Every structure is written in structure tokens, then in C-alpha cells.
Amino acid sequence: MCAQLLSFTDRGIFCADGGFYIDPWRPVDRALITHGHSDHARWGHGQYLCTHQALPVIRHRLGDIRAESIAYGESRQIGGARVSFHPAGHVPGSAQIRVERGGEVWVVSGDYKVEDDGLSEPFVPVSCHSFITECTFGLPLFQWQPQAVIAAQLAAWWQSNAAQGKTSILAAYGLGKAQRLMTLLPDAGPILTHGAVEETTRILRNQGYPLPPTTRVAAGIDAKSYPGALVIAPPSALGTPWARRFGPVSEAFASGWMALRGIRRRRGFGTGFVISDHADWPGLNAAIRATGADRVFVTHGYTTPFRRWLEEQGYDAGIVQTEFGGDEADFAPEADPL
Fold it and tell me: For residues 95 and 51, is the Cβ–Cβ distance under 8 A?
């Protein structure tokens, strides 16, 4: 009997036939990377392989690495396994990784969402026998509103703040979420960015992603020079001297966790916008069904209740312990509270 195509090790998800790991969290010789977030693309590997679209940000984050890239849908033989990368819809350049050996197919999803955000390459279901899925928001209470609804809420908040003489500061992760929010905002005033956000935005803009003009916050840029502005910054910038330069402000945070009012209250966020680059409950279930997989492994999130749910639906389901955290992990409740 052949060994299982992918195995789960203390370094990451491993393919013995190909001699590679997928999104490993400890240094390995060969790593296939789904996307550029820091919990999936880590420094220290001998070789990296990712999509053409993901590589510029990964190089920016990790520095001088030995890396090559591959087109979506392109098939490559690595040892005894054939691999290909397919859009995950999570952030620009993100991918699911398909691995095949002798007709057996596994897919590692990385992180994904099924709603087309107009910026990231839209999610494409990939048929497989075994599917490894995140379940960051794997409870029925997590059901996202359409993106257009959130866009209207953002616009109304910004315009109301400007009318009161306040600067709007919107906190979001610097890769993916920040740029997605930019594309949702109306042309209602200047958009300023924290340096960490602007660097990633510049890289994506240079790749051809359609992003609006933004101005990096530097010396001399404040509420007087940019009245009525909206500032996009990492969550760590909220409530700091950096933010206080803008005088009277209204701060908000954009995250799927804003669906939980208790988190919003404990963190002191006056305004929260429920928007995530991860699939919600209906999205997770739709994506899994679309794969046609019989066996599903769940990672990072509400793994215990989601596995139980999948077993009730007739899947052969298991839990994979990983060190993935997700771009919103700092604001998540403890895992598996149910």
C-alpha cells in the first residue's frame, strides 16, 4: 500500500514523493507557499515556490531568498508528485496548492474566501479526493454581508466623520485587507496610509493591481494638511502618538471578528466593520462541497465543532494541528471555545 500522499509533521504539511513542504513553519529545504502572510510565508527555507503574483511581496518581506514562481494553473512535476497552484481569493496572489500522485489528488487551501472582492484573483474550486481547509470562522454565526453593503457603511462613516471635523482612522492588516478597503471606498477625499501599508500597496500597484492613489503619512502630514482624510493603518497604530497627530479622530477596525460584539467592546473599538478575507460559514461549506472531496482535514480556527459538523454531513473529517494563525489571529477568541 502506498503511503499517504501528504503527511502532517512538526515542520509542516509534507509530501514525501516530492520532497517538499507546504507553508512550513520551521526551516525546510523546499517550501511551496500559498501566500505572503507571515504565518504562511516564513524566513529560513532553502527554496521557495509560489505564484508569480505572490512573489514580489514575499521577497519584500523575507529579503534575499532563493525563490521562483509559477503561473496559476501551470502544472509542474516535483519528484514523484505533480503540483499546480489555483486561485484562493484570499489576498492578491494567494493560491490553493493541488498535489497529485497516480490519480490521487489532495488540495491544500491555505486561506481562502469565495466572494470575489474585485481585487484578488477569484476563488476557483479544485476537484480532489482530500481537502485541507482552514476554518477560521467555522461557526454558523459567521455569515458575511455582501461587500457592497460594507462599502456603503464605510462611506457613510467616513463622510460623517469628515462633517464633524474628524479624521477617520481605519485599522486593517497591511496585505490584502488594506488594499481591498481602498478599492471599496468612494472618491470622497484623500486616503493616507501608514508606512507598512503603503509599502505593500506600492508593490501591488506596480504589479498592475487597480488601486486608488494614496499618500504615505510622513512628517508634515496631519489633519491640517489633509482635512477630512481617511487613514488606513495596522491595528497596532490605533491609540498611539502616531495616530494622535491627526487631532480629533474616529477609529474603526475592519475584521470578521467584529461580528462578535464582546471582542469589539473588550478591545475598545468604537466602530467595527465586519469584513474578512476568510470564508464565512456558508463559504466554507460551499467550497468543500465544490471540491467533491470525501476526506476533509480542518486547520486553524474552530476545528473541533467544524470537524464534528463535517462528520455529521458524512465526510471523513480530521483535525490538523498547525502553527497558522491568520492575519486576524491577534483579535480572535481562544480556539474551540465550544
Answer: yes
Show the DSSP H helices in the chain as ranges. 55-62, 147-163, 177-184, 195-206, 241-244, 261-267, 281-291, 303-312
**Mean pLDDT of all residues in the chain?**
93
Distance CA 90, CA 70 (A): 18
CB 88 within 8 A of CB 80: no
What residues contact residue 224 under an 8 Å CB cut-off, 6+ apart?
none
Domains of the chain: 7-141+278-331 (3.60.15.10), 147-273 (3.40.50)
For 180-192, the pLDDT digits (tens) are 999 999 887 899 9
* Phi and psi at residue 85, to the nearest 5°: -115, 135
Checking if the pLDDT of 61 tops 50, the result is yes
Question: C-alpha angle 316/280/144, rounded to 5°?
Answer: 160
pLDDT value of position 334: 46
Determine the length of the chain.
338
pLDDT at 186 (0 to 100): 81
Amino acid identity at 224: K
pLDDT for position 336: 36
Nearest Cα neighbor of 234 from 185, 196, 275, 269 is: 196
For β-strands 30-32 and 47-51, DSSP reports them as parallel
Which residue, among 222, 226, 220, has the nearest Cα to 188 in the 3D structure?
226
| Long-range contacts (CB closer than 8 Å, 24 or more residues apart) made by 237-240 | 237/169, 237/171, 237/194, 238/169, 238/171, 239/268
In this model, does residue 22 exceed pLDDT 80? Answer: yes
pLDDT digits (tens, 9 = 90+) for 283-305: 999 999 999 999 999 999 999 99
Closest C-alpha to 330, from 255, 261, 231:
255
Cβ within 8 Å of residue 35, ≥6 positions away:
41, 50, 54, 88, 90, 91, 93, 94, 95, 110, 111
